[in-house]
Known about the structure:
Elements: H1 7-19, E1 28-29, E2 32-37, E3 40-46, E4 55-60, E5 63-70, E6 89-96, E7 107-111, E8 114-120, E9 131-134, E10 139-142
Amino acid sequence: MLMRTDPFRELDRMAQHLMGPGTWSKPSVMPMDAYREGDQYVVAFDIPGVPADAIDIDVERNMLTVKAERRPVAKGDDTKVDLSERPLGVFSRQIVLADTLDTERIQADYEAGVLTLRIPITERAKPRKISIGVGSGRQEISG
């Protein structure tokens, strides 16, 4: 069996333990990726171990807020926990969205612990060609 030691893992775990779990008033941050894919802006959040009904997504004006709560696994009276490294509590992330994104048509999918939001880019933000009128005959040249 291969055993690998990460000297910083223990420091991260101790720091998280000292800060305590995230609460609704002071949530922990969740990691994310954000990128443009065609005519959509995609934001993916890592929140493994969180049931879909414990995820809350809100958009107010151009502020997107994602909150999720990882609760402890129900343990019986005869359960003895030997190790508990997975952080519990509330996780949150707020993102200011550009005016060029259509917040009315956001799609959310949750699979394998990853919440993926797909936000369409508005028509007015897409590149377009402007035609140029020439002379009095108004011949048009596409530019």
